[in-house]
Design brief:
With about 290 residues, this protein is of the alpha/beta class. It contains 11 helices and 10 strands. The structure holds phosphoenolpyruvate and manganese (II) ion.
């Protein structure tokens, strides 16, 4: 942590005099505001599979009160034999879903050559866990001047994560939202997909002015854990959530962790009613 002022001077309260105060620097993504008065919920399918599937889920999450729509057109998959996303067609579908529901679109970009294309359709560019340390991609994404959702590398510490965010900030783009999505640790894969590091939320909030949200879907990998993980994340001061929702929970990409719209509605209600951001974590503030 001693190295942090050298690694991420643009993003620390301690080193960026413009953002020394208590308040988080809010990131506006059309109608959705991250780091504002209330938590922000991004929801939608893991992957854009078809027009009907995406529109059905988009309408359902909008009705449940989500602030933004997620969905991958380009998917990072462990096996090259698995579904890789439908690419440009998927981006067109996301745009259509956004036009109908009014929800801003958050979608992943994995390739420097496709940043311009994805930025044409997306309201917020997602950099996934596997690409958190893809420095040329981070710089290219920074130059697109769109808000960025930077997911934590599954084996990255806080310094490495903020260092990656600094690559984006260095291009003159401070509209960055950090997303904790679970890390690889001793029990990963035993009873949950990853280990959700809730402790990083207050640590980040005290060190940096960037908003931080949590992905309870990929971090747990288990649908029944998504709702309690969401509540816990909010109790720890998360500025929002990104959640996978499916029309039929047993089908499709990452089906085991997808929740239905009913469950999403309960999470949104909880987020609206119970959010009490934690005080700046003193130990983290001293670090
Ligand atoms: C996703 O959000 O679609 C995703 C693949 O997440 P992660 O990069 O966190 O694995
Ligand atoms: Mn997924």
């Amino acid at each position: 942590m001693e190295d942090l002022p050298r690694i991420a001077p643009l993003l620390l309260r301690q080193t960026n005099p413009e953002y020394r105060g208590d308040r988080t620097r809010a990131v506006q993504v059309r109608g959705a505001c991250f780091g504002g008065e209330r938590p922000t919920v991004i929801a939608g399918p893991c992957a854009v599979e078809s027009y009907e599937q995406t529109l059905t889920v988009a309408r359902a999450v909008q009705k449940a009160g989500a602030d933004a729509l997620r969905g991958g057109a380009y998917k990072p998959r462990t096996s090259p034999h698995d579904f890789q996303g439908i690419g440009l067609e998927g981006l067109h579908i996301l745009r259509a879903a956004s036009d109908e529901t009014g929800l801003p679109v958050v979608t992943e970009v994995m390739d420097t050559r496709l940043v311009e294309q994805v930025a044409e359709f997306a309201d917020m560019l997602q950099v996934g866990s596997r690409n958190m340390q893809n420095y040329p991609l981070l710089a290219e994404v920074g130059r697109a001047h769109k808000p960025v959702l930077l997911k934590r590398g599954m084996a990255a510490g806080l310094c490495e994560w903020l260092g990656s965010a600094e690559y984006i900030a260095q291009q003159g783009n401070l509209n960055i939202v950090l997303c904790e999505r679970g890390i690889k640790a001793f029990p990963s894969g035993e009873y949950s997909r990853y280990v959700l590091d809730l402790n990083v939320i207050p640590a980040l909030r005290s060190l940096s002015f960037l908003p931080v949200i949590v992905d309870p879907s990929h971090s747990t990998g288990v649908a029944s854990m998504v709702e309690p993980a969401s509540r816990a994340a909010l109790e720890f001061g998360s500025h929002g959530l990104i959640i996978e929702v499916a029309e039929e929970a047993e089908r499709g990409c990452d089906a085991a962790q997808a929740i239905d719209a009913q469950t999403l509605l309960r999470i949104v209600k909880f987020a609206r009613a119970h959010w009490t951001p934690v005080e700046v974590h003193e130990a983290a503030a001293r670090a």
